[in-house]
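Hi L.,

As promised, NAD(+) diphosphatase:
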Amino acid sequence: MAEKYRLPLTSLSFARSVYERPVTEHDQPELLPQVMANPLSRVMLISARGAALRGESLMFTPGPEYQSSGTEQFVYLGRDQQHPYVLAIVDESVLENVADASWITLREAFSTLSEAQAELFVEAQAITNWRRNEVFCPRCGSELRASTSGWVQRCVANNHELFPRTDPAIIAAIIDSEDRLLLGANSTFKSKMYSVLAGFVEAGESLESAVRREIFEESGVHVGDVAYLGSQPWPLPRSLMLGFTGEALSTKLIPDGTEILDLRWFTREELGAELRAGSLQIPRGVSISHALIRNWYGEPLPEAPNK
């Protein structure tokens, strides 16, 4: 595998945070109330329909002005150089009488929001997914209550602490001896969408082994040398995508027929021509899948507009 493919992805979205996250090793019961009382604080809203949007920006409310029936729904997300940011997990009905406001999903936000706001949304969506799904103590089934500015849930019966869960998943650009890239059509994609292959890391498995296993299971391709390139949070619902490049030791393609419906090896000329013609699409925007494809392609991808 050429050394140029081993270089880290330097332009990967969310690789360097613009926000300083709160310290969550120790509970500070006074921290969240202090942040909410700060006139500079900004509260963003998330419901089952996504984040509150006004125009092409997240909708924020000053902390002291936000009225709520309780404090369990708040999470202190962190701060930038100007403002502390707080998440409020709410019912979608809160926007019914708010002029010019709407809900936006995280996938939609990647092509709408600035990267800084998209990063804040990623963090907020990840913690929201966990808070919604972790509602009872796994040890005894008792109620959970939030602590540590919303980043910990504590059992009311046995004081057992629960922390946000992240599922590691590998995603890999597999390249053969002819410098072709392997792309597949996932059963969840729209018909013309192709991407690099990905899968979850299993218990007791190294990341490198996960790359080789997942690629073989989904494509029938044996993978030799692999190199780590970078990572990206992907809270859909709670993944951390770990990006790799890998050397293909075989080229016969056998899609699994369940998750992967079609597989193809692409030269740069073939991929560029199909993207320009609009006969094929790839993941766009901030995704690590796009970054891995672009890294192999060597220059901005000539994508046709979505139809």
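The longest strand covers residues 223-234.

Thanks again for sending the construct details.

K.
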